[in-house]
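Hi both,

Apologies for the delay on this - the queue was longer than expected. I finally got the NAP-bound model through. Below you'll find the protein sequence and the ligand SMILES exactly as submitted, and right after that the structure tokens for the full complex including the ligand.
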Amino acid sequence: VAGKPFRIALAGLGTVGVGVVKALHQNAGLIAARAGRPVEIAAVSARNKKKKRGVDLSGCTWVTDAKALAEIPGLDAVVELIGGAEGPAHDLVKASLKNGIPVVTANKALLAHHGYRLAKLAEDKGAALKYEAAVAGGIPVIKSLREGFAANNIKAVYGILNGTCNYILTEMRETGRDFADVLNDAQAKGYAEADPSFDIDGVDAAHKLCILSALAFGVRPDFKSLKISGIRHITARDILAAQELGFRIKLLGSARRTDKGIVQSVEPCLVPIASPMGAVEGVYNAVFVEGDFVGTGLSVGRGAGEGPTASAVVADLIDLARGFCVPAFGIPAASLKKGGWTDTGGIVSHFYLHVVVLDRPGVLADIAAIMRDHEVSIEAVLQRGRDPDKPVSVVITSHPAPQGRVEKAVAQIAKLRSVAGRPCLMRIENF
Ligand SMILES: NC(=O)c1ccc[n+]([C@@H]2O[C@H](COP(=O)([O-])OP(=O)(O)OC[C@H]3O[C@@H](n4cnc5c(N)ncnc54)[C@H](OP(=O)(O)O)[C@@H]3O)[C@@H](O)[C@H]2O)c1
């Protein structure tokens, strides 16, 4: 394809950066046809120049200080694939936009914390800020929310947004093993980071949810307005009990519009085995969108890894090369509303409660009384085995009740002398 090359600088040559180089090399012809011109890597930056990366970078200028990429004359885009909300990634993105250079990034942490200010800067300077790879890698969810569903008033966005957690929960179910054991194994296989806390404590999913919320509801991404709970406390018993009740446990990011405001949370929840979300297993991600005209839709795909993430980055580059540019969050940054958040207390749902109790007379009656006092009515009780004065598992499901009220009841149940450990409370989501 003839035409002036679209010249990019690439910062970060790790999993995603190398994937982007491979995609641009391997599919150069069709990418050029779709972009209307060849995409050329003019310069790259990473920490270690000597590291073997398995890709040919001989024609690219090596730049030691990533921020200096923003000063290269004649660049059409900077691709930031370093990561982290602060430091070199933030400095580079800011410097590039300030110089009017469009930016493509996969950095959800950066967008969750600085998305509003960066979107505003991008607009002020007339440079695009694109980030398809930041949420659910291989699923083009940013494009669908921002463009495909643009006619809709979005009521809710839900998702399985972290492949590591979904993999761990799936393994726990399939093998009956406990969380710590499966996590160790996932780390050994490279499915979980050496420091897995961002994934398993729900932070990574929360970063992504902030971005989805901003797009869906026209609000500023706000990491402080989320309730976040991870999956460390989920036991093999929870997985089994959920299964017996007809559910699977998923770490769900959910953002919904309510009368009181937008409620966002990342929490493990139960979803019916037979639901489309229940069928999303292993490292797969899923995003469910509910709009007033389109109805409901679910997209499923690989959320991370070299190939899916690189695919999303290159799609953004092709859009840029074609001159297709919309505001970062779909509407002008100045129109993005601030706040409007509310907590999860008002969500009315069925609930799952797992309590380990000492098997003494009256303990179930005490739990039932507390639930009654909080106007939470019990739907079913599941108890396996009996061993006087030994801990036994009791699983209770409730009829629909507001989450705030159920949480208060559970806080009181946790204080009962016959209750051992921390009760596990989860919402039962039914789509
Ligand atoms: N991995 C995924 O599946 C995935 C999926 C979706 C989104 N993302 C996002 O994509 C971004 C990159 O992730 P990744 O998994 O590719 O990370 P990674 O494998 O750790 O790679 C990071 C790269 O950044 C380079 N780097 C670090 N500090 C730098 C600095 N000060 N200046 C220049 N380069 C620097 C590193 O250089 P050296 O190689 O020399 O050490 C490395 O090449 C992150 O924002 C991540 O959240 C990743």
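Main takeaway for now: The pocket of NAP is lined by residues 11-17, 45-48, 51, 66, 81-83, 88, 106-108, 133, 137, 304-305, 309 (CB under 6 Å).

I'll put the files on the shared drive as well.

H.
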